[in-house]
Amino acid sequence: MRTLEINGTIVKPGKAQWLNVNTYSLTVGAEVAMPAYVINAKADGPVVLFTAGMHGDEINGIETLRQLLQKKVAQHLQRGAVIIIPVVNTISFMYKSRALPDGKDLNRCFPGAKNGSLGARIAYDMMQKILPLIDVGVDFHTGGAQINNYPHLRCKFDEHASVDLAKQFGAPFLVNSEYREKSFRKEAARLGKTILVYEAGESLRLNKLAIKTGLEGCERLLKNLDMLPHDAIEPYETAVLQTTTWLRAKNAGLFRTYKKHGDYVTINEKIAAVTDTYGKEYFAVLSTVNGYIIGVNNSPVVNVGDALLHVGCV
Ligand SMILES: [Zn+2]
Fold first, then answer.
1. How far is the centre of ligand 1, averaged over its atoms, from the C-alpha of 134 (Å)?
2. What is the domain extent for residue 215?
3. 119 and 162 in a common domain
4. How far, in Å, from the CA of 208 to the mean position of ligand 1?
5. I want to staple 302 with a disulfide (CB 3.0 to 4.6 A). Which of 142, 186, 256, 306 is the partner?
6. How many whole angstroms from 55 Cα to the centroid of ligand 1?
7. Is residue 235 part of a domain?
8. Tell me, what's the pLDDT at 235?
């Protein structure tokens, strides 16, 4: 039987409770915490981490984990432990901002430092207090700026443990993704911990498909790890995408696409258009590859070179 201790709070086997990973002071003297809900089953098993809100404007993951909490996983967990942190970057969430107040991206602050910038301190707390306890995790994100991502998981394909874990979670697409320097996923991997990145939806917008797919993935993963009771688990069809390509605007103007998110497109197929603002010119956007649309720019006013559509190739 093993207990979990986070920031001085002990969660015994068979117990579930909220605790604060840390608290951070605001300029007015108030403190903002990073709450975590820890469910520790009586029987030993894997420790799974679910995190969202690393970027404070990415709401879909926060809502996904809120719904997971509402499903009262704690009452059904039959082995192992689950740590749920719905908002890692609470300060940026308060401001509906991707970045921290000093402009830093928290997901480029890892592994952090005890006495560093605010982002470095939050990263340090995640590295020191959370990662040593877990076996695997899923970090929930959405597209940055006004990019709307079709639900997909990102991991490094040459790491078989990551690919296996991704298939146990299940998402419509699995994308090969190299590590980014100073990211949570990369620094977790250095500690031997597999973190998948789940990308779905658009910042500051709730997206039903993103949330539903994410929630089902959490439950499917816990069932596949025999942490939740289950009958036979139906295999999930995931399209594995080896490479991805951004189709970029060759002309400035107003952008619209004729395709739906997740659609398959073929080389030279007319899939979108950019028109000038005054009804004089029309520029067709042709796909340069065969693949699935996994990202759409929802901001219709584009400059030359702006990202329009993200296409993933099998
Ligand atoms: Zn993000």
1. 21
2. 4-224
3. yes
4. 18
5. 306
6. 5
7. no
8. 82
